[in-house]
Amino acid sequence: MPAQHRSELEDILSDKVFAVESVGEHQIDDDDTEIVEEAKPGFCVECKDQRASMQCSHCNEPFCEVCYGMIHRTGKRALHAASPIITANEENGRRQSTSESNTEEGENISLHDNLTMNEPKKAAGPTFEEIMIHKAKFIPLRLSLDERKYLRLLEAALNVSEYTDRVDGFEHKSKAKRIVAQIKDICAVLSGLVTACDYRRGQELFADRTFEQNEDFFQKIFEIGRRHKIMNPEKMRSAYGKLMYMLMDSAIPEVEEMLGFSCVIPIKTVYSFLKERNGVDVLTNEIILLATMEIVPTGKTRLQIQTEIKRKERSIEQLSRKYSNPKLSADEIRHCLYSIGDNNAYLRANRHPCEKMLTYLQTYFKPDEFEPGYSLSISAGRSGHRLSHDHSTQYTYVNQTLMLWREILHEMFMLWSLADQDLLNSHNVYKLMDTGQGVQRMQPCPAIGREMHRTLYKAQKKAKTWIGSSVIHLGDKNVPNALMFIDKYNQVAKILNPIVLTLDHMDDLCKDDGINRYIQNTFGGVDQCKKEILLNFFRGAFDGSGADNFYDAGSCIDGRLTSAWNWCSQIEQKPFFTVFLLTGFVGFDGGGWN
Q1: What is the pLDDT of residue 100?
Q2: Global pTM value
Q3: Start and end of every B box-type domain (predicted)?
């Protein structure tokens, strides 16, 4: 053995770490090593695309708030200490304020102390103006009457189209050519429908003009469909998928070049509409809260409701008169205010059921104790459960899941906007995969994934302790693309709303003597019946069931919703199903029962 190799072997077998490292440095081939991209200065070392806001003193690395929370949530890293990173601007501001305070202290110490004690502290969170502007950036503008006519034409064209069957099928013809042919077919149908409905308008648009020359018209009509769906998730159930897949294909550079025009423009929001017309100031006036509030009649007299309606109308008129200008009419301001009001109504219809279920959980169950026969504990292998939790653990698991759903639904419009961004990104390529539920378009979801991790971090921070997995399925066989993600979390309100309505209406239902007698004999009373429903739901809908392995269901973020939907599919087998029917239950999807 050569002397050099013998010395290297001795170093490897010995404790001379530095010698081994030095030997390795000389023999590493740059071509065979994987180059790990380093984070830019000032950015998070983990995700590399967010500004660092915290410096871990133990890891000696900078993190953004979300990555720091995920990595340091459990284990020994939970004991690590971190300090906020101060930017150059913040440091300059701090030095300036320090020098000014020192000057004042030298001039008059007692006066400075008095001023400091009386001076109000600045709020650490965002201001009212920042919250409203941020919110308005993701609220779609309500459709006008003319836009609703085009929406009906778009739906008619999409309903007769077989776009995905033709494009995603396995044919020998070039896929790009198939895509272009199908898009032009839809555009041709739209052109014919417009001409049939309004001959003069059709002549203006399509006489002696090509599709490329009508690019603005097609962009507008496709944007109307996307905007309408966000505001009305229950509409365009099959047509919306065709529309988004068509626009996804049209954004491919090769297809766009063959097509000759682009089909995609940004969704028109309240903020973008006001900004174009120099009317953003309307969002900074606190009266906007009164002008956009939803008037809920529950528990109010007719006089109270009428008073709230008049106050809301006065607020709308006041804002529309004050902020109108040559570019922005009073009617357009009203239109924007109504759009924000639609958002508040959406939140009440979708987020409110989560809050109601949290209230029911905290009212009828306690985390540390339980009544005999009403324990939330579950055991894997029994009654279809796939998780094993004692009462306290299951209570925490259900509580944090409902809190997470509430956070997701609160940010749903923003998540929908990010999903739109992921789907229509020309550089975000999809591939056809058989996921076990048919052939699906599997596509990465970077924007929506980043925001979901931020939302999960906020929920974990509020919950303090986290039960189960933190895995978020996106761009895999469980949630192939952002469209499937949006569709999945739109089901939360469909699951919870019928249960909440049943529980809320039971007291009124029992005013009937016959029904009251039935519930007394079967369940032992109204409260006992409510407890039976809640106990069955909190145990059976949060037990990890719904799939044949822990990757597809279980306790992951996506699996929690899978388990809840699995419970809904078995509702007719429950002993309290007749109570649901008596309260007007028509199914979790609104389809009714035969």
Answers
A1: 46
A2: 0.81
A3: 39-85
